[in-house]
UniProtKB/TrEMBL annotation:
This is C-type lectin domain-containing protein. Residues 153-196 are annotated as: Disordered. GO terms for biological process: innate immune response. Residues 1-18 form the signal peptide. Pfam families: Lectin_C. SUPFAM superfamilies: C-type lectin-like (SSF56436). It comes from the Eukaryota. Residues 28-143 form the C-type lectin domain. Gene3D superfamilies: Mannose-Binding Protein A, subunit A (3.10.100.10). Keywords: Signal.
């Protein structure tokens, strides 16, 4: 069944690839993805994507997750690689949120790994997610909605205010400027039934 899904996915990707702004990008589901064969920390990968007016890889479906794992494996030549996706949380007691500001609506966490870090990476081996130390240098994927942005142009600029009243201009998308003041909950944090 996985092979049939991948073949069908490949057809869908290549039949609508023209929707992406670059021939290097892959259209999967409703987003375009760019795979980078360089390794950066989570924050540096996120900043790199923002500089291109993209987000660190947002994944909404199992199809997107599995196909990205296959594409990254092919591009990097590694069967053991991990790559950063744009899922993170500001603290261990907070909910996971995608880099584009959307909440996590489904989970693909590998139950064999602890979930005790803030940033999420995906394995090319099985497409499963695991939390990782954000300082780890991993491959990464950027994503964008081709109907909403033109990658390669400067992203929206938001003015930030410091406690001394001064302002600064940032290159972060406005959606990442706002943090919820509530502590959140772990209701969207997958439970690890293998641990007692």
């Amino acid at each position: 069944m996985l092979i049939v899904t991948l073949i069908f996915s490949a057809f869908l990707i290549y039949s609508v690839e023209g929707q992406c702004s670059s021939t290097e990008d892959s259209y999967i589901g409703d987003l375009c993805y760019t795979i980078y064969n360089q390794q950066l920390s989570f924050q540096n990968a996120q900043s790199y994507c923002y500089g291109l007016n993209k987000n660190l890889g947002v994944i909404h479906t199992t199809l997107q997750s599995n196909f990205l794992a296959s594409l990254v494996r092919t591009k990097t030549g590694s069967n053991e690689a991990l790559f950063w996706i744009g899922l993170s949380r500001p603290s261990l007691n907070s909910r996971f949120q995608w880099d584009d500001g959307t909440t996590m609506s489904w989970s693909n966490f590998d139950s064999n790994f602890p979930k005790d870090n803030l940033n999420v990476a995906e394995s090319v081996l099985n497409g499963k997610w695991r939390t990782m130390n954000g300082q780890e240098a991993l491959f990464f994927v950027c994503s964008y909605d081709p109907r909403k942005v033109t990658p390669g142009t400067a992203g929206p600029t938001t003015t930030g205010y410091y406690t001394d009243g001064s302002t600064t201009s940032t290159d972060w998308p406005a959606s990442t400027q706002t943090q919820s003041s509530s502590s959140g909950s772990t209701s969207d944090y997958p439970t690890d039934s293998s641990k007692s």
